[in-house]
Design goal:
The protein has helices at 6-12, 38-51, 60-80, 94-106, 127-136, 154-160, 183-193, 212-215, 239-244, 268-288, 294-316, 349-358, 371-376, 396-408, and strands at 19-20, 23-24, 26-27, 88-91, 114-118, 139-143, 165-171, 196-200, 219-223, 233-237, 322-325, 339-344, 361-362, 364-366, 385-389. By secondary structure, it is of the alpha/beta class. Strand 5 (114-118), helix 5 (127-136) and strand 6 (139-143) form a beta-alpha-beta unit. The radius of gyration is 21 Å and the shape is globular. The structure holds pyridoxal-5'-phosphate (PLP).
Length: 409
């Protein structure tokens, strides 16, 4: 494994010092929300101390708030490789932003329109589209994942797509089983028929570089609490679309993006924390390369996490009681994030998660809102799966301790 400043990384996250029954806690709950660096905690509280206000005032704290929002937008534009800071729209969370966007897009749909969603996705990228389509009498088709590797196959999409397709909604990576999706190829197919492409980047965001130009999508949403920041959602769309499309807004809110898309008062303290989370990533980049670029940070995180995935999958195969759902070949780690869905023979996932929790290993159990995925795997009635989710603050030793804990359960 290449040298990664893991000791420095861990020092930045105060929560990682937690002990449970005198055992150091191992945080493997990242896919449900990551821990945050001290600098994020400080930025949120500093906002209240020095800048707490609303936008548009002729005084210092209001100007401070504006400056924080502008800097955060610019940093997120870099994070996504967006062309303009105004292409970044803040909102309550990814789910709310997606519901809002679905209502706007649905205005142009007709009963003959067709949408494509997937069975790999979190329901936040399924139900908003289904509900909006139902209001218009439009058809929703499901791009089913292949059960053998819990991955989406482009051949299956080709069979669903037609010149009636108006929207494809797909994730960059599954929050339950970790499989990546070839969104670039999906975008090419969508373009051929003039369909819009909405990408859910919530799960992928803490694991690697996001480049909206390279992906070729029309919309991309994610949530800062999954990439070391506070609870807030972020949507990216092209400036021309944001400018030309009518939004649901009150009078006399701005007619220009992003203001026309950001209803009501935003969580400025969370925006301050999001900016600090991205600054933390820049700081990490400077420790692994000669730059402070967010790309460099995410590339080094990706390389480090590939090692953790390989280590986990190589060893878990020896545990005869464990079944891994999704890509389980250690040579194929490049096709997934380090998020693993498991079941232990003869043990309900909630019981397994509770027992692991007592040993200081914090994992989620259930469906994680990936309801269609869990149902298609036939696990809805059996409590779903255990989700072991590594992020870059986890260590090689923690992977070993997790494997041991699974062994003795
Ligand atoms: C892949 C994925 N998409 C969407 C969501 C919903 O995000 P939010 O909580 O910001 O609405 C989650 C949350 O777990 C997720 O993992």
């Amino acid at each position: 494994m290449e040298s990664f400043p893991i000791a420095w990384v861990r020092e930045q996250f105060p929560a990682l010092k937690l002990s449970i029954d005198r055992m150091p806690a191992i945080f493997l709950d990242g896919p449900g929300g990551t821990q945050v660096p001290e600098s994020v905690i400080r930025a949120v509280s500093d906002y209240y101390r020095t800048s707490n206000s609303n936008l548009g005032g002729q005084f210092l704290t209001s100007r401070n708030t504006l400056a924080i929002v502008q800097r955060a937008r610019a940093a997120l534009a870099e994070f996504f490789n967006a062309s303009h800071a105004e292409e970044i729209v803040f909102g309550q969370n990814m789910t709310s932003l997606t519901f809002c966007l679905s209502r706007v897009l649905a205005k142009s749909w007709a009963p003959a329109s067709e949408l494509i969603v997937t069975s790999l996705d979190h329901d936040a990228n399924v139900s908003p589209w289904r509900l909006a389509a139902a209001e218009k009498g439009a058809t929703v088709k499901t791009w089913e994942f292949r059960k053998e590797n819990c991955s989406l196959d482009l051949e299956d999409l080709r069979r669903l797509i037609s010149d009636r397709t108006v929207l494809i909604a797909v994730t960059l990576a599954s929050n339950a089983v970790g499989s990546l999706v070839d969104v670039q190829s999906v975008a090419k197919l969508a373009k051929e028929v003039g369909a819009k492409l909405f990408v859910d980047a919530v799960h992928f965001a803490p694991h690697g570089k996001i480049d909206v130009q390279m992906l070729g999508c029309d919309f991309l949403a994610c949530s800062a609490y999954k990439f070391f920041g506070p609870h807030i959602g972020v949507l990216w769309a092209r400036r021309e679309w944001l400018t030309q499309t009518e939004s649901f807004k009150v009078r006399p809110a701005s007619d220009e993006p992003p203001g026309k898309w950001e209803t009501g008062t935003q969580s400025f303290e969370s925006i301050a924390g999001t900016l600090a989370a991205l600054d933390y990533l820049r700081n990490l980049a400077s420790r692994t390369s000669a730059t402070t670029s967010l790309n460099a940070a995410m590339d080094s995180i990706r390389r480090y996490e590939l090692g953790l995935s390989e280590q986990f999958l190589s060893s878990i195969a020896r545990n005869r009681r464990v079944k891994v759902y999704g890509i389980s070949d250690p040579k194929q780690v490049a096709k997934r994030t380090p998020t693993f869905a498991l079941r232990l023979e003869g043990m309900h996932p909630d019981v397994a998660a509770q027992k692991l929790g007592e040993r200081g290993v914090l994992v989620w159990s259930g469906h994680f809102y990936a309801v269609d995925l869990i149902e298609r795997l036939g696990l809805s009635e059996q409590g779903g799966v255990i989700r072991v989710g590594f992020v870059h603050y986890n260590t090689v030793e923690e992977v070993d301790r997790t494997l041991e804990a699974l062994e003795v359960l």
